[in-house]
Amino acid sequence: MLTIVNKAIAEGNPVVLCTIVETEGIVPRHAGTKMVVFEDGRSEGTVGGGNIEKLVRKEAEESLKDGKTRFRSYDSEVGSTDDPGPCDGKVKIFIEPFLRPATLVVFGAGHVGQAVVHLAKWMGYRVVVSDDRAEMCTPEVAPGADRYINCPMDQIPEKMTVDRNTYIVLVTRSVQMDAEGLPALLGTQAGYIGLLGSKKRWAFCRGILLKAGIKKEAYRRVKSPIGLDIHAETPQEIAVSIMAEITAIRHEKEP
Question: Do 89 and 118 reside in the same domain of the chain?
Answer without folding.
Answer: no
